[in-house]
Design brief:
Elements: E1 2-7, E2 11-17, E3 23-25, E4 33-35, E5 47-53, H1 55-65, E6 70-77, H2 80-91, E7 99-102, E8 108-114, E9 120-125, E10 144-149, H3 156-169, E11 172-175, H4 179-182, H5 185-195, E12 198-202, H6 203-210, H7 217-227, E13 231-235, E14 241-244, E15 248-254, H8 265-279, H9 284-298, E16 321-327
Parallel strand pairs: 1-6, 1-10, 2-8, 6-7, 10-11, 11-12, 12-13
Antiparallel strand pairs: 2-5, 3-4, 8-9, 13-14, 14-15, 15-16
Helix pairs in contact: 1-8, 8-9
């Protein structure tokens, strides 16, 4: 029996780094910023780095590093990238027994443009991960303490199957839905949101899920608290995070750190939080500290795994965490 199974994507990532990458203002962009490249030109790179990424593998490595027996459920292609993904899982002590191989599709692939300020744009090919189906999974042996679901590219049929299996087996579920799942809205996935044990979102994702306009943080958190009977978490990057559990709302403030790459920060926070609950059940404050340290640590390294913490926690004098408490309603 494993401590936790992670469901999500597995990708081969290539980081392209150059001081010449420029960010421009663009009101048509969702972030009001854009990267601009001239077609027909040639741009020199300062460095290239190959990594293994994807929410399924990123979160699995956190759990394994923190001493939890971990297996990842995903799909790869029968190609060199797939071999790299399997090798990386084994290197980090994660079981690949539940990784399916698709002979027709390539493994997922991401190209990450990273500038010296830590700003990045990502081109994603979901590949074989996108085609993971319930029939690909050995459900008979999916039996453990927790399941962690990251983005499944809008595959709500699979998400519902995971929830149903977890309920049948008495397995607790943490869910960090991706953009394609959230687009379904609270009306379609409200029952999943209501009954999940831990729901993990950033602020923009919470607004999308609830279908509300930008509103005061505390109002948004309380609205999510009403929709979710479990623990709901809203992250806001260097501004900290919010956590509600139908009893009290916690506002977590952290001292910002210098980020060189924010890729994987959300995966690091979510997996750190759930790892804390597994190691110390019911201790939300401990889970928050583990999540904050893991996320702050990973953004100080290039790649979604290099900065992940281990059982021997790093010196944390630099990580100042302050918690405010509010009534849940």
């Amino acid at each position: 029996m494993y401590d936790i199974f992670t469901f999500g994507q597995a990708t081969q990532d290539v980081y392209l780094m150059s001081k010449k990458f420029k960010v421009i203002q663009n009101t048509r962009s969702s972030s009001a910023q854009a990267a601009c490249f001239a077609f027909g030109s040639k741009m020199e790179l300062d460095d290239v780095l190959f990594e293994v990424g994807g929410g399924g593998t990123n979160t699995a490595v956190t759990f394994s590093r923190l001493g939890l027996s971990t297996a990842v459920v995903t799909k790869i292609g029968s190609d060199a990238a797939g071999e790299e993904i399997i090798a990386s899982l084994h290197e980090h002590g994660v079981s690949s027994h539940f990784v399916s191989v698709d002979d027709r599709m390539r493994s997922g692939y991401s190209t990450i443009f990273l500038n010296t300020a830590g700003e990045r744009a990502i081109l994603v090919y979901r590949g074989a991960s996108h085609s993971l189906k319930p029939t690909d999974i050995d459900w008979k042996h999916i039996d453990g303490r927790w399941i962690y679901i990251s983005s499944l590219a809008g595959n709500l049929t699979l998400v519902r199957k995971i929830f149903a299996h977890a309920k049948k087996k008495g397995i607790r579920v943490a869910w960090n839905p991706g953009a394609l799942e959230l687009q379904a809205g609270i009306k379609k996935i409200g029952q999943l949101v209501r009954h999940v044990d831990v729901l993990l979102l950033n602020r923009e994702e919470a607004v999308t899920l609830l279908g509300v306009r930008q509103e005061k943080d505390i109002d948004l958190v309380r609205r999510l608290d009403k929709a979710c009977e479990g623990i709901a978490v809203i992250t806001e990057g260097e501004k900290g995070s919010w956590v509600c559990d139908n009893t009290v709302v916690r506002r977590i403030h952290i001292r910002p750190v210098k980020a060189v790459d924010t890729t994987g920060a959300g995966d690091a926070y979510g997996s750190g939080f759930v790892a804390g609950l597994i190691k110390r059940p019911g201790d939300i404050d401990y889970a928050l500290r583990l999540a904050s340290i893991n996320s702050a640590s990973v953004v100080q390294e290039i790649g979604a795994k290099h900065g992940l913490i281990s059982r021997k926690l790093p010196r944390t004098s630099w990580m100042r965490i302050r918690t405010q408490l509010f009534p849940s309603a």
